[in-house]
């Protein structure tokens, strides 16, 4: 007996060890793949059990990997992630493409092609190359292989089609656009500036300019007619603007610029409209640059009809409304038409307010606030104005009202239109009429029933009265709340670790 126990123990230990080996050591680490290049004929399908990322191809050291990215649990994007942090740094087509489904597939036949579950093409690189690789910079390239290594040509590279992120030494040129993951904001180069655009009105393209960075031109100047500018995030820790040659016309240093080494930086256009720089500390990404440093200068820091109070935070333009769960519910009715000649609106006024970044906005000069307001009142596409009683500048807002900045100067006034539907008033009236009718009906029923019982009792018949139909009258009210249900915006954000 005594001799058997140890051997049993060793058997159990062995089994346990084997179990550990298979669960811990042999657990497929999700971001590892042995593929260093894809050749013609490569195909892959989505694995439905994958939680975050399904790698298909990695760079030579495994810092970056290309594959299927799961977004918000149900959506699928195809792109390149930074493996240690699982952050997407590039996605095909600037968006998620379809739902996460195991019938979605990828093919490399010279082109990288992604098919939906019905075999339709969701995205294609439209190339005729020989192989696909991920370079150490995160750049996904499709190459034509030459006679010798030197004859290899890059036919297509993801660096030419950035999404919301710029990587080190990636050229950002005037042909390119960065788009925030919620699709609201974009960054584009002008002839001599970096422009940031907001698309609060879906019909406007590219939207209105909400911020602009002009070069300092300390060491070199932008020359007219000398070609377009480009912007590069350098390994030395600054965002440089160049025109010709390697002398920058502008340098925006990051707080981590003393940190040496390559492959540790990125800048991203975030869903709040800010361009933010990050430094990889080998365990996390830390912020080391913000293009717009003052929160109140962001285009919509407190949401629509919000009021940003410098140093204090958010409240609402309408002081009767409290700022809760990140927005101001001022009772605005969302209607498809932005035409104020077709839509009913009320007017909201506020003193001591200013538009964010008013320095870059157009204005007209009017002799009085009344003239400034009436210009807007008569304009079907005007959402509001902000007027300065001292400078007489009248700023027109021609997009849905976003966040306004509070200032101590009471001579700065705002006039804002709020869409509302008079139908709503009718609805309320209708509700009362309905309730009245219902009460009347119930009363009538009670009287009839009373009479009936009275008669029956008089006839001497007892019992047999079923109490039915009492609850049926409440039915129509149970769905009242559901019309206010709003679907969640799926494109909100990439999941942050
Ligand atoms: C690759 O496949 C796509 C989709 O079937 C097709 O449209 C395209 O012509 C093919 N490209 C090449 C180079 O064969
Ligand atoms: C960026 O542009 C410069 C100048 O045109 C060029 O020399 C450099 O190779 C480009 N870098 C990349 C990564 O394409
Ligand atoms: C891989 O990433 C680490 C950390 O960011 C970096 O130090 C290293 O240089 C990278 N390797 C290559 C080959 O770029
Ligand atoms: C709200 O604003 C109005 C006009 O700007 C002002 O007269 C009123 O006192 C404010 N109410 C509160 C509660 O702050
Ligand atoms: C209305 O305002 C828009 C935006 O400010 C402007 O472009 C347009 O010319 C104005 N229309 C009229 C009729 O004044
Ligand atoms: C605007 O300025 C005029 C004269 O400069 C003054 O009479 C008026 O009261 C001011 N209005 C406001 C709201 O400050």
Quick structural summary:
Residues 29-168 form the Bulb-type lectin domain. It contains three helices and 34 strands.
How would you describe this structure to a colleague?
The structure is a single chain. By secondary structure, the chain is an alpha+beta fold. It has 4 domains: about 30-160, Agglutinin, subunit A, CATH 2.90.10.10; about 160-295, Bulb-type lectin domain (Agglutinin, subunit A), CATH 2.90.10.10; about 300-420, 3-Layer(bba) Sandwich (Hepatocyte Growth Factor); about 425-495, no CATH class. About 15% of the residues lie in helices and about 30% in strands. It has 3 helices and 34 strands. It has helices at about 5-25, 370-375, 420-460; strands at about 40, 40-45, 55-60, 65-70, 75-80, 85-90, 100, 105-110, 110-115, 120-125, 130-135, 140-145, 155, 165, 170, 180, 185-190, 195-200, 210-215, 230-235, 240, 250-255, 265-270, 275-280, 285-290, 305-310, 315, 345-350, 355, 365, 385-390, 395, 405, 410-420. Strands 3, 4, 5, 6 and 7 form a 5-stranded antiparallel beta sheet that branches. It starts with a helix and ends in a 38-residue tail after the last helix. About 30% of the residues are buried. Residues about 1-5, about 15-30 and about 455-495 have low confidence and may be disordered. The structure holds 2-acetamido-2-deoxy-beta-D-glucopyranose (6 copies). One 2-acetamido-2-deoxy-beta-D-glucopyranose binds near residues 159, 169 and 171. InterPro entries: Bulb-type_lectin_dom, Bulb-type_lectin_dom_sf, Pan_app, S_locus_glycoprot_dom, SLSG/EP1. Pfam families: B_lectin (PF01453), PAN_1 (PF00024), S_locus_glycop (PF00954).
């Amino acid at each position: 007996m005594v001799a058997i126990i140890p051997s049993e123990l060793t058997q159990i230990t062995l089994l346990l060890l084997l179990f550990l080996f298979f669960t811990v050591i042999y657990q497929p680490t999700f971001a590892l793949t042995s593929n260093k290049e894809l050749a013609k004929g490569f195909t892959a399908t989505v694995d439905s059990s994958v939680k975050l990322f399904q790698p298909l191809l990695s760079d030579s050291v495994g810092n970056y990997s290309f594959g299927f990215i799961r977004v918000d649990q149900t959506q699928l994007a195809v792109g390149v992630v930074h493996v240690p942090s699982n952050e997407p740094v590039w996605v095909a087509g600037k968006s998620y493409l379809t739902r996460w489904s195991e019938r979605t597939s990828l093919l490399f036949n010279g082109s990288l092609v992604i098919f939906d579950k019905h075999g339709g093409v969701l995205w294609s690189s439209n190339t005729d190359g020989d192989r696909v690789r991920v370079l150490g910079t995160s750049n996904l390239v499709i190459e034509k292989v030459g006679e010798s290594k030197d004859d290899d040509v890059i036919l297509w590279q993801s660096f030419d089609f950035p999404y919301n992120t710029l990587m080190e030494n990636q050229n950002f040129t005037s042909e390119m656009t960065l788009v925030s993951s919620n699709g609201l904001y974009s960054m584009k180069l002008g002839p001599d500036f970096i422009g940031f655009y907001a698309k609060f009105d879906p019909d406007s393209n590219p939207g209105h300019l909400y911020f602009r960075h002009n070069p300092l031109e300390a060491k070199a100047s932008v020359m007219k007619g000398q070609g377009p500018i480009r912007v590069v995030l350098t390994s030395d820790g600054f965002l440089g603007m160049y025109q010709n040659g390697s002398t920058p016309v502008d340098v925006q240093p990051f707080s981590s610029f003393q940190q040496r080494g390559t492959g540790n930086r990125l800048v991203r256009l975030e869903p709040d409209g800010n361009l933010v720089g990050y430094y990889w500390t080998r365990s996390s990404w830390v912020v080391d640059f913000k293009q717009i440093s003052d929160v109140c200068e962001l285009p919509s820091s407190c949401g629509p009809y919000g009021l940003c109070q410098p140093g204090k935070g958010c409240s609402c333009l309408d002081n009767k409304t409290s700022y809760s769960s990140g927005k101001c519910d001022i009772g605005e009715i969302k209607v498809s038409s932005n035409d104020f000649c077709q839509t009913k609106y009320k007017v909201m006024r506020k003193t001591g307010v200013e538009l964010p970044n008013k320095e870059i906005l157009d204005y007209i000069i009017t002799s009085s606030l009344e003239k400034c307001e009436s210009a807007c009142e008569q304009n079907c596409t005007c959402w509001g104005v902000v007027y300065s009683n001292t400078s007489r500048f009248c700023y027109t807002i021609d997009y849905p009202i976003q966040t306004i900045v509070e200032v101590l100067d009471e001579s700065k006034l705002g006039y804002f239109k709020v869409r509302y539907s008079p139908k709503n008033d009718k609805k309320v009236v209708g509700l009362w009429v309905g309730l009245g009718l219902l009460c009347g009906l119930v009363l009538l029923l009670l009287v009839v029933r009373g009479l009936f019982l009275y008669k029956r009792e008089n006839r001497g018949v007892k019992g047999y009265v079923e109490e039915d139909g009492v609850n049926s009258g409440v039915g129509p009210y149970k769905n009242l709340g559901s019309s206010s249900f709003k679907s969640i915006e799926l494109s909100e954000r990439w999941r942050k670790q």
